[in-house]
Design brief:
Distance between the termini: 34 Å
Strand order of the largest sheet: 1-3-2
Structural class: mainly alpha
Number of domains: 1
Order of helices and strands: HEEEHHHHHHH
Length: about 160
């Protein structure tokens, strides 16, 4: 089995290349305002990030998960903190979390890169344990969105909801 990627710069570049390949743009910029996740802001469906402020490269995948599960017409509208655009439901959040797990599996990135110790309300290790044991919390949401199904997950049919 190939060793999972953990290096910050290499992981960041791999995540950005992947997101670009599936149609979620990521742009390097200078961010001067406070943001929900350090060094990341969404602007009309584009993830903008400041390499100087980005603490956790895996947060790029999590934010991309929020964009990915939106309907195409909504992706280009979302801007700022996602909570300013819509009040995410638990299903939206679980969908984004599970989407990011599918992405890190596809990219062969260590789960701790996304589910780091300073995120997920101190439940990061619990989430990793659930997913590694095949308990895919949020799977019905991704199935409902037509992105995957129980038989193939963590593989997906499509990375973006239609």
């Amino acid at each position: 089995m190939q060793q999972k990627l953990t290096g910050s710069k290499v992981v960041t570049e791999k995540i950005i290349a992947f997101l670009d390949s599936i149609g979620i743009s990521v742009v390097k910029t200078k961010i001067s305002q406070d943001t929900f996740l350090p060094g990341i802001i969404i602007n009309k469906g584009i993830i903008e990030y400041d390499p100087q402020l980005l603490k956790y490269p895996g947060d790029l995948l999590h934010e991309a998960g929020h964009i990915a599960v939106l309907a195409p017409q909504d992706r280009k509208k979302v801007a700022g903190d996602l909570r300013d655009y819509q009040t995410p439901s638990e299903s939206d959040e679980l969908g984004a979390i599970l989407w990011s797990y599918a992405a890190l599996t596809y990219l062969n990135i260590a789960p701790e890169i996304v589910f780091h110790e300073n995120g997920y309300k101190n439940n990061s290790q619990w989430l990793i344990d659930q997913f590694e044991n095949g308990t895919y919390i949020g799977l019905p949401y991704l199935e409902w969105k037509g992105m995957t199904d129980q038989q193939i997950f963590p593989k997906v049919h499509r990375w973006l909801a239609q």
